[in-house]
Amino acid sequence: MKANEFNLLYKPDEKVVYTGDFGQTHIVKLRTPAWDIPSGSTLVSMEGYSGGYLVDRISKCPENKITLLELNPQQKELYVLHDGTKCPYCESNEIEGSSMDVDGNTAWQKITCLGCDKEWNDIYTLTNLVELES
Asked: How high is the pLDDT of residue 63?
C-alpha cells in the first residue's frame, strides 16, 4: 500500500495494531502520516518506537472498527465466497471455530470473532465423498 492510500485510511494519533517480527501484536499510536521511500516501501512512525515501520504490519485497532449489528444477504454471501476467512461483522482475520455438530447430511460449527466478540454458525452440507484405499 502506498503512503497516499494508507493516509486516507489511517491518521496520526490513531490507535492501531502493529504486528512484530515474530507475529506478536501491540496496540500503538501512529505518530506521523506514512511516507514512501525510494526502494518502494511505505513507512510510518509510531509512538514508543524509533524510525519507520512497514505499513504492511499495521491494521485497524478493533476498538476503532465499525461492527455491524446485523448482516444482509449480500454480506452473508460474501463471507461464503471468501471461504469464511474474515469476520462478516468487522472483517477481522482473528476468528476461531469450535467442534463440529452433525445432524444427517448437515453439519455446523460455532465461530467466534476475537476482534468484535460476535458469534455465528457456519453451516456445512455433505456434497460428495472420497474413497480411501484400504
From this structure: 62
Per the CB < 8 A criterion, the answer to whether 86 and 79 are in contact is yes
**Domains, the chain, ordered by start:** 3-63 (2.30.30), 73-125 (no CATH)
Residues 27-37 have pLDDT tens digits of 889 999 999 99
In this structure, the chain runs to a length of 134
Q: What is the pLDDT of residues 92-125, one digit of tens each?
A: 889 999 999 998 888 999 999 988 888 999 999 8
Tell me, yes or no, if the pTM score tops 0.85.
no
Instruction: Report the C-alpha gap between 88 and 120 in whole angstroms.
Output: 10
Burial label, 34 (beta-carbon count in 10 A; 0-12, 13-18, 19+): buried
Q: Write the DSSP symbol of residue 40.
A: S
Give dist(CA 84, CA 111) in Å, integer: 10
Assigned C-alpha cell, 96: 476461531
Q: Count CB atoms within 10 A of the CB of residue 61.
A: 16
